[in-house]
Specification:
The chain is mostly helical and about 200 residues long. Helices cover about 85% and strands about 0% of the residues. The protein has one domain (about 15-195). The model is unreliable at about 200-204 (pLDDT under 50).
């Protein structure tokens, strides 16, 4: 591979990594913010929780959609579209039904967590992540799916327990996504190898 070609590969990879890092980092920051809101405001009313969660889902969906549109070369684009559209749909649904019951809200949160978990698990297999980051993303997806299932199985649990569970879930997911986002140099190396490999083989 010539130096010029390699530079182009590196530039393309760096651009894709930057978009992926921003998407993961911002979504992770949103999750941590959601957890912090619940911890700082443990007596949050159902109405306020609906608004906070709606804003969280809508913002995450918009950020994910922008990232998916702006990074067509990254694998798993279709799955990222699914997760982003789900977030936007949940946000719109929540804001359109701000008077929904506690049980209805928990079902919405559970369904959203399952969709996000499925997307994260898929991303762990198709995104060009290093082994450690891939495993972390997959584990985050599994936790998200399990959390969603718990929301469906125990929708009538005590308010304090539910809030604690939501906060713990958001914190774990947020920190995991921030960790993967911060490890951008490792992702860059993986992407460079991915882009360089076909060209290298073709030059032989």
């Amino acid at each position: 591979m010539t130096t010029t070609t390699f530079d182009q590969v590196r530039k393309t990879a760096k651009t894709q990594v930057t978009k992926l890092r921003w998407a993961l980092g911002l979504n992770g920051a949103l999750s941590v913010a959601l957890a912090a809101t619940i911890v700082v405001w443990p007596s949050i009313s159902l109405y306020a929780l609906v608004l906070v969660f709606g804003a969280y889902a809508l913002a995450g969906g918009v950020l994910g959609l922008v990232s998916a549109i702006g990074s067509p070369d990254l694998p798993g684009r279709g799955w990222r579209f699914v997760g982003s559209i789900a977030g936007i749909a949940v946000g719109v649904l929540v804001f359109a039904n701000t008077e929904m019951s506690a049980v209805a809200l928990l079902y919405v949160i559970g369904a959203y967590a399952i969709v996000l978990g499925a997307v994260a698990i898929r991303g762990a297999f198709v995104l060009p992540l290093p082994g450690t980051d891939s495993a972390l993303l997959g584990l985050t997806g599994a936790i998200s799916v399990l959390f969603g299932i718990v929301m469906f199985v125990e929708p009538g649990a005590g308010a304090v327990a539910v809030l604690a569970l939501i906060a713990a879930y958001a914190l774990i997911v947020g920190l995991a996504e921030l960790t993967v986002a911060i490890g951008g140099k490792r992702i860059l190396r993986s992407l460079e190898q991915r882009y360089a490999s076909p060209s290298t083989e073709g030059s032989r």
